[in-house]
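Board notes (copied after class):
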Amino acid sequence: MSTWFYQVSQKEWPPQRYRLEIWEGERWAWSVSRKVTGGRTPEAGDTVAFFQAPSGGNDPGFYGWGVILEWFRDGEKMYFRPVAPSDHLKMDPWWDKEAQALADGIRGGMKQGTLWHVPEKLVVKLREGVARWMSSRRSRS
């Protein structure tokens, strides 16, 4: 199983539209253009983290998780289903210095793109970061 990082452009898919349209449990299909996969191919059952890039808007951060349902290599299309805590994250995206450093680490020198394979050592940081963000938000309620 692999984890993927899908970068959303705030100019092309603004946070308001993402919040309105993407809901946990629904099936979606998005195209994938520029990929940094390290020779890997997404597969059904892999996870994907959705990230709104800082450029082109004022609400960057990690917006949710999903499970890849299908990958169509010929059409470069990914079918996925958003899962918890996506509905919460889209309202309160994880964005702090740690999230920014993690996104930069995943993207490496290529900040413009759509899909990156997340190295295992960064998958742990991603999961821990989301859990910490969610926990800190719950304790403030």
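Comment from the instructor: Helices lie at 15-21, 86-89, 97-107, 120-140. The domain at 3-133 is CATH 3.10.590 (ph1033 like fold).
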